Amino acid sequence: MNLEIVVIGMGYTGIPVAALLANVKGFNVTGVQRKSKRSGWKIDYLNAGKCPIGGDEPGLAELIQKVVTKGSFRATDDMSVCKKADVILIDVQTPVDEDHEPKYDSLREVSRAVGRHMEKGAMIIVESTVAPGTTPYVIKPILEETSGMKAGVDFNLVYSYERVMVGRLLHNLVHMPRIVGGLTPECTQRGLDFYKNITQADVFATNCLTAEVSKVTENTYRDVNIAFANEVALICESLGVDIHEVRRFVNSLPNDPSDPEKNPYRMMHIPGAGVGGHCLPKDPWLLKYGLDTYGVFRFTPKILVESRRINDLMPQHMMNLVEDALHEKGTRLQDARVCILGLAFLKDSDDTRNTPALPLYDLLKDACREVVVHDPFVKESEGIVLTDDLENALRNKDCLVIATDHTEYSDIRLEWLKKILATLAIIDGRNVFSSKECEEAGFAYRGIGVGRRVHLIQE
Asked: What distance, in Å, lies between the first and last C-alpha atoms of the chain?
């Protein structure tokens, strides 16, 4: 089977899916990236066979080099390549604004361009995360109006979401089940046949709206569970117990295979300094927006909204812990020099999208004498004092704050810290250090769900 494929959006989803498709015999893939100041450099980078995604991404750099060398993948900023495409994948970002409503500027712009250029018989697949109702009620009308064709008759329209995770991009695309929601049963079947070329796991068939709801629900489920863990962590801090011991006991309840419904296992999440990434901080709002916009009856999904509030407040709680630890050591917050370890939202990654380290930095920057951020993977970030020199970042600082659990930080030794820190204070947002060992070594230690802190997040 010979197919011309266009993947629009060379980001954390578009790049790996384009590389996988280009590795299929008979598939020729063109990646489209807007030539913006922030991301335009990716075009030349990809065409040189290089991987623009930093951090530890097993197999991705090698695969990109392979398909570029083979001649089955190239990148461009020219949307007219859609004219010859049999399949067009849309993988653009869909953030939310300050009012938690989706910003579809890029999605609408791309949809109009696709509609102007696509030929009859093409299959358009939306992989971007969207609010429920977006594919049938936003994208479909744009494509039909600009193309003069009818969806489900003259072209196929499919919503099929990605399940990628930074550090496991290729693995998840290949080994995680794929949900394919078509506008019509015929659209769905064509989508199923297409994804079976790169997916080794199950491929499930449904409709557009169900697939859209499934995607945002999947991420909202995780966000709510993290919020529960964070709230229990605050309870543990107040009561003077260790959340990690509590979590170990809770998760020790086994699943009984003889009757799993009567004894389901527990899987309490790990609390932390906050929730980041492109999906979790916004997908609950997309789910709510779909309800508010297209629901037959409307209500406020309180668990969803309150969970977002709890997770968004964790950077503020981290700053409260900083102030508390410094107070124990006789240092005022306004006089303190602080080093934040980790800017990326995820371990051993360069992905800073919606990182909770940024609001923490902003809070501390306005309250402290000096704030420096260290990250071994993030090379630059506008408005942030950033370095990859760990010793210089920590030298003569009054407080070490761990926002990301990069592997490098687990190698830090307390005796070494005692030699270079001006004040022995550690705020551990990712459970990297042992609270007992830190306290025995003379550090004022505060961790999420651990330590002697008694102040709760203010309402």
From this structure: 60
Nearest alpha carbon to residue 103 among 115, 118, 92, 91: 92
Residue 231 lies in a domain: no
**CB within 8 Å of 371: residues ≥ 6 apart:** 337, 338, 339, 340, 361, 364, 365, 385
Report which of 185, 113, 187, 179 is spatially closest to residue 157, judged by C-alpha positions. Answer: 187
How many independent structural domains does the chain possess?
Answer: 2
Q: Is residue 293 part of a domain?
A: no
Structure tokens at 426: 């550690």
Quote the tokens at residue 388. 């990859």
Q: Give the structural domain span for 324.
A: 313-447
**CA torsion angle 321 358 351 111 (round to 10):** 140
Residue 359 tokens read as 């609001």
pLDDT higher than 90, residue 254 = no
Of the listed ranges 36-45, 111-120, 208-217, 267-276, the least confidently predicted one is 36-45
* pLDDT given at position 391: 97
Q: What is the pLDDT of residues 257-279, one digit of tens each?
A: 788 777 778 899 999 999 999 89
pLDDT, tens digit, 9 for 90 and up, residues 362-392: 999 999 999 999 999 999 898 999 999 999 9
Query: Hey, is 414 helix, strand or coil?
Result: helix
pLDDT for res 451: 66
CATH assignment of the domain containing 46: 3.40.50.720
C-alpha distances (whole Å) from 350 to each of 56, 287, 377 are 9, 27, 5
Q: Which are the contacts of 279, defined by CB distance < 8 A and separation ≥ 6?
A: 129, 219
Distance CA 251, CA 232 (A): 14
The set of catalytic residues is 215, 279
Residue 301 lies in a domain: no
Burial of 243 (0-12, 13-18, 19+ CB in 10 A): buried
Phi then psi for 338, rounded to 5 degrees? -120, 145
72-88: b (≥16 Cβ within 10 Å) or e: bbbbbeebebbeebbbb
Q: What angle do CA 326, 329, 334 make, to 5 degrees?
A: 40
Q: Which residues contact 327 (CB under 8 A, 6 or more apart)?
A: none
d(CA 20, CA 172): 12
Q: Is the entire prediction scored with pTM above 0.90?
A: yes
